[in-house]
């Protein structure tokens, strides 16, 4: 049963588009939630929280009782190298009995930026909103699961042989995966609206990406808004990485961002003077005055490839809406992700242009049909914030997991309740590296991650009901 405060929270489904978040609202004095580390780490004293928040030592911390985490999943984290006073990452994991014979397990990682207020809030509330959404559709979910288990809902291919008008008059019956995916998608949007609504009462700083893995009805639903990542590793495929999420950066989400700018060109201008500051077009190289009148490669929202256009004075004068490449790509020279929750106060500092309209809380939901595979105790899902993935590849993770398994054999084997935790710690230590001459370096001599790093290693043997 949800607390009444959360039910009230869910009733406030006002769209964020109905509120002008560019207004200068009075800033509340205090945070809604006091800063702490994830509950799954166990009880931590204020002294312990202070110690693990030291950017000088960067102590890798794991749960005090790993076996108490659902499925004995491994978890480890480390604070950043000094970019913020505290870790802005948060994590959750819960096992829940939904009723009517349906249970689910949920894991979440929330990578905050611009303060820890939003990541704290969504770590506390998002899973409750998801739960309420699932409760609301429970009767339909039970029916859909029965259909799915019987094999009668096979992609509705039989409709192809029916008369068009007959199909149009048939009642629409969403399948199991559509119901759960919709519950996750709407929860992200509601959560974003709740952050905005509650900013009038509390000081909720910054924004946050969100990565959620929901294990329900013999399937894994991964919902991602941001640049955290979930990757599957199975023994039957020699632990070849199988990504279950997509990194949303200004580059990968370029066409969506440019289309918003096309339909709302005023978002590219100074809110005070109306003068245009940014150019929605992306060019293949920085432009100079001598390029005016020449042809240059460019692309717009309707283009997957590149075309040629004559360079104008505005093309040279205006700042690029999206610039940079790879890990250096930025939206309005500021933001490195394209999807997040919160960020209602995020602006381009010199022009005061607000970025929120370009940042979407819309998650991509990928579904892994676990029931189609014989998942073994060695098979895992690795979830991590970008502090890991910025310096460690999917294949690097596969190698480290193999090494951890071999190390366990050499010492006579770890309990299966402990091995995932050791794997998570090993991955965090790999990305953090060691401090040498004032800098954090990986074992290969390359620059290590200076970001907050949080990692789940989730065993999958229990992801399918017996």
Structure overview:
The protein has 466 residues and is α+β, with helices and mostly antiparallel strands. The chain starts with a helix and ends in a 7-residue tail after the last strand. It is 27% helix and 21% strand. Strands 2, 3, 4, 5, 6, 16 and 19 form a seven-stranded antiparallel β-sheet that branches. A five-stranded antiparallel β-sheet has the order 1-23-20-7-8. A three-stranded antiparallel β-sheet has the order 10-11-12, with no helix packed on it. Helix 3 crosses helix 6 (176-198) and helix 10 (394-410) packs across helix 11 (419-432). It has helices at residues 4-11, 46-52, 117-136, 138-150, 164-169, 176-198, 254-263, 313-317, 386-389, 394-410, 419-432, and strands spanning 74-78, 89-99, 102-113, 207-208, 210-216, 219-225, 229-233, 242-243, 278-279, 282-283, 295-299, 307-310, 319-320, 322-323, 330-331, 341-342, 347-348, 353-354, 364-368, 380-384, 434-436, 439-441, 453-459.
What's the layout of helices and strands?
Elements: H1 4-11, H2 46-52, E1 74-78, E2 89-99, E3 102-113, H3 117-136, H4 138-150, H5 164-169, H6 176-198, E4 207-208, E5 210-216, E6 219-225, E7 229-233, E8 242-243, H7 254-263, E9 278-279, E10 282-283, E11 295-299, E12 307-310, H8 313-317, E13 319-320, E14 322-323, E15 330-331, E16 341-342, E17 347-348, E18 353-354, E19 364-368, E20 380-384, H9 386-389, H10 394-410, H11 419-432, E21 434-436, E22 439-441, E23 453-459
Parallel strand pairs: 9-13
Antiparallel strand pairs: 1-23, 2-3, 3-4, 3-5, 4-16, 5-6, 6-19, 7-8, 7-20, 10-11, 11-12, 14-15, 17-18, 20-23, 21-22
